[in-house]
Write a structure and sequence with these properties.
Blueprint (H helix, E strand, L loop, with lengths): L8 E3 L2 E3 L6 E5 L7 H14 L3 E5 L3 H14 L2 E5 L4 H10 L3 E4 L7 H14 L3 E6 L5 H7 L4 H16 L6 E6 L3 H14 L5 E2 L7 H17 L5 E2 L7 H14 L7 E5 L10 H11 L7 E6 L14 E5 L3 E6 L2 E7 L3 H14 L5
Parallel strand pairs: 3-4, 3-10, 4-5, 5-6, 6-7, 7-8, 9-10, 11-12, 12-13
Antiparallel strand pairs: 1-2, 13-14, 14-15
């Protein structure tokens, strides 16, 4: 896939746009008033592979918590600001790596100028967030409803408020809970400007439904080279969002890190309890960073043949299974040793990885 070159901006250690890899984001769901719990969640997200984490900043105490959290975790943090431009200025000064605002709801032009000046001085970008519930009345009247074109027009309008003060380190984010609307909005923005785009289906729902909607919307855009950062928004543990985001990128060939699990859907030939075995392998591989394809197959038919491209895998049979590497059989293994023997091979490959 060809990715249109976008403007390069940096949020802490994360490079966004400019042909850089697509990064995975999430948002902290714990209040800054419970700092210990907040820090633990941030560290879990970091361990899961979250590259940029957004934090709600509703008051001055949250600014202080953001600064402390960054120092203690080393994470790149986005300050999520609504309405109060002073909090945006203070967060930029306190060490936020990116500011998320909607310039139209923080007040007059002078306030937008103050935010632009603070972010310029700190060397950090601004993410403009627009969704179907935040459209301006005139834009909504013009389009009749929150269409993709309306969302794109609103985002470009808000960008112009920053451009007025010669500020161009901008990331645009247009989201909707309707997948088609979100896709249309991002396609329009992709054609209209060179600002990097943050993708997401907002309010996507609970884990199962949200994963499907997000994969449908973001997957179609990413396959066409559209999008520079992503967040899969779920009514679930944020760690699930990160794991899902990395899985999505890996499945599209946009992430060369971690394990891609290949497992068959089972059928009448399956003679082992394959579903919990596959889940056990997936869980055990969560911390592995070497790019590997691991297969857990239910029978000889779906074994080394269909999973030929896997780096390592097992094909299960009656009371035993076949361990194979790169499609070639290695040895037969008793059923009660299948998991352990597979993980031994995976850990061996991980230990040899120079990028570990």
């Amino acid at each position: 896939m060809l990715r249109k070159q976008k403007r390069l901006v940096r949020a802490g250690a994360v490079a966004i746009g400019g042909g850089q890899p697509v990064s995975v984001q999430s948002m902290l769901s714990v209040s800054h008033t419970r700092f210990g719990e907040l820090e633990r969640q941030a560290l879990r997200l970091k361990e899961a592979g979250c590259e940029l984490v957004r934090m709600a900043v509703p008051d001055r105490a949250a600014v202080d918590a953001l600064s402390r959290l960054k120092e203690r975790t080393g994470l790149s943090i986005v300050a999520d600001i609504h309405f109060d431009y002073k909090l945006a200025v203070e967060a930029a000064t306190a060490g936020a790596d990116k500011i998320r605002i909607n310039p139209g709801n923080i007040g007059d032009s002078g306030r937008v100028k103050a935010v632009a000046a603070a972010c310029r001085a700190a060397g950090i970008p601004v993410r403009i967030g627009v969704n179907s519930g935040s459209l301006e009345r005139d834009i909504l009247k013009k389009h009749g409803r929150p269409t993709g074109a309306a969302l794109a027009e609103s985002a470009l309008y808000h960008a112009s408020l920053l451009e007025k003060w010669d500020f161009y380190d901008i990331v645009l984010s247009v989201k909707a809970s309707d997948v088609r609307t979100m896709v249309e909005a991002n396609r329009a923005l992709h054609d209209a400007c060179d600002y990097p785009l943050h993708l997401g289906v907002t309010e996507a729902g609970t884990e199962r439904d949200g994963l499907i909607k997000s994969a449908a919307g973001m997957g179609s855009l990413l396959l066409d080279g559209i999008g520079d950062t992503i967040r899969i928004s779920l009514t679930a543990d944020p760690v699930v969002e990160v794991d899902a985001g990395r899985t999505l990128l890996r499945s599209l060939g946009l992430l060369e890190s971690g394990v891609e699990l290949i497992s068959c859907p089972t059928c009448g030939r399956t003679q082992v309890d394959l579903i919990p075995l596959a889940q056990r392998v997936k869980d055990a591989c969560a911390g592995i960073r070497r790019p590997l394809r691991v297969a857990v197959m239910g029978c000889a038919v779906n074994g080394p043949g269909e999973a030929r491209e896997a780096d390592v895998g097992i094909a299960c049979g009656a009371g035993e299974g076949l361990l194979f590497c790169k499609g070639a059989p290695v040895k037969k293994v008793p059923e009660d040793r299948l998991f352990d023997r597979l993980m031994e091979e995976i850990r061996k490959l991980e230990a040899e990885y120079p990028g570990k």
